[in-house]
Amino acid sequence: MREEYEKRLKEYVRLVNAELAKIGSVKPVGSESVCEAMNYSLNAGGKRLRPVLALEFCRLCGGDVNKALRSACAIELIHTYSLIHDDLPCMDDDDYRRGRESCHKKFGEDIALLAGDALNSAAFQIIASEAKCGNISAETGIDIISILSSHIGVYGMIGGQVIDLESEGKVISLETLNTLQERKTGALIKAACLMGCKLGLSADITKTAAASGYADRLGKAFQIVDDILDVTGSFEELGKPIGSDEEQGKSTFVSLLGLEKAQAQAKALTDEALSFLDCFEDNGFLKELTNELLTRKN
């Protein structure tokens, strides 16, 4: 099973990276600098977790992964835009991302800001073009645009970022931290899973509910592991300085629960996430991926 998992993961990442390279190859005259900045961050590596989740849920729901590929890549454009903006001096002010200079350190704040904006708009352009060319239906295009936009706006990722900014230097409650996480980190992971179900043309309410429950638990466990790694990891492993949360006066699951309780909660949430996958046949890949995310080093 492990060999099959690694083979499928490698193929998903290959497909995503190849498609992202195609997307980034278009450079309109006069916009070369912002396109270079977009590609710099988009092709900086990473797990490609969100498009992989979308593609696998598409497959589990009986869809065509190849036809869903570009729509799944749209999620990675959104994720990359969020990272570029998150690193800006007016936000988390991080100089490094994935082992090299952040976009604004390489290209300046103005171009980095525009690169993030351009990636955001390009994501929705891609989904619309996929519907126009027939790789997905118009109805599916509308559905996944609705899912993606609602999960990255004020009720999702951006809403979570606002809570994060306004909580700096404060000790917040665990309830507030959970809300922050559900929006800032969890919402885009949830969008990926739900988009995958739609791309698989699943009208099964039970499967959609299971994907949603899975994503909720996975997203929270993912953030807890992030918080743990910010304390226990290294620059070489994470590609960015450790201890940044403490330096910025941020409450985290580690600061509120302690390291051991945070680790135990991440494990419990992972187990809950795994239980939701029983709704799907041939779920071995997702179970392997879910377990691997719990023990990751970056």
- Count the domains: 1
Biggest beta sheet attributes: 2 strands, antiparallel
Neighbour order of strands in the largest sheet? 1-2
Name the CATH architecture. Answer: Orthogonal Bundle
Fourth-level CATH superfamily:
Farnesyl Diphosphate Synthase
Shape: globular
Task: Please tell me about this protein's structure.
With 298 residues, this protein is mainly α. The chain has one domain: Farnesyl Diphosphate Synthase, CATH 1.10.600. The protein has 16 helices and 2 strands. A two-stranded antiparallel ribbon has the order 1-2. β1 (96-97) and β2 (100-101) form a beta hairpin. α4 packs antiparallel against α10 (186-199) and α15 (259-276) runs antiparallel to α16 (284-294). The radius of gyration is 18 Å and the shape is globular. 42% of the residues are buried.
Describe the structure concisely for a colleague.
This protein has 298 residues and is mainly alpha-helical.
Feature tags:
single chain, Farnesyl Diphosphate Synthase, mainly alpha, 298 residues, 16 helices
Helices and strands in order:
Elements: H1 2-24, H2 32-42, H3 49-60, H4 65-87, E1 96-97, E2 100-101, H5 103-107, H6 109-133, H7 138-152, H8 157-166, H9 174-184, H10 186-199, H11 205-232, H12 235-238, H13 244-247, H14 253-257, H15 259-276, H16 284-294
Antiparallel strand pairs: 1-2
Helix pairs in contact: 1-4, 1-16, 2-6, 3-4, 3-10, 4-6, 4-10, 6-7, 7-10, 8-9, 10-11, 11-15, 15-16
